[in-house]
Specification:
alpha+beta, 10 strands, about 20% helix, elongated, binds FE2/S2 (inorganic) cluster
Length: about 160
Amino acid sequence: MPQPQLPTSDPGKPSRRGVLKLAYASLWLALVGAVGLGLGAVLRLISSGGGSPQDQPVEMGQPGGLAVGQAKAHGPVALVRDAGGYFALSLVCPHLGCRPAWHKAQSRFLCPCHGSSFALDGARLSGPAPKGLGHVALKITGDKLVAHPSQPVDPATRLQS
Ligand code: FES
């Protein structure tokens, strides 16, 4: 007479082998995803010419449209004009990297994050920023002013127009 077989495992419960397969599959997918993200970042860096978007040249229009003593933001840089001529300031706060904005009424750049303030020439006036805003290269290309955020220049540099 045949003996009844006892079940070796609960049919509703996943087997240990199944759990391990699922864990390996999840790990594999996470690894493939991480490699894909890293590859995407490298390709974006290569296609942008090797720098971040903040380092790309910024076209600022034709000279002549800015009064002496004023500044105008163009993304990560500001076009500024003083009695000596035009120059460009990096709008990356030297404290923690926020973007200061020009406040015409107060004649200064103010950082919205922790309140650092900077004079028209970029010099630090107050706040936690350890230094002033950086001066970057400003050139005329064709008939347009173009700032080059990745090229620091001496703060005394001016472009005549
Ligand atoms: S990031 Fe500008 S003051 Fe902190």
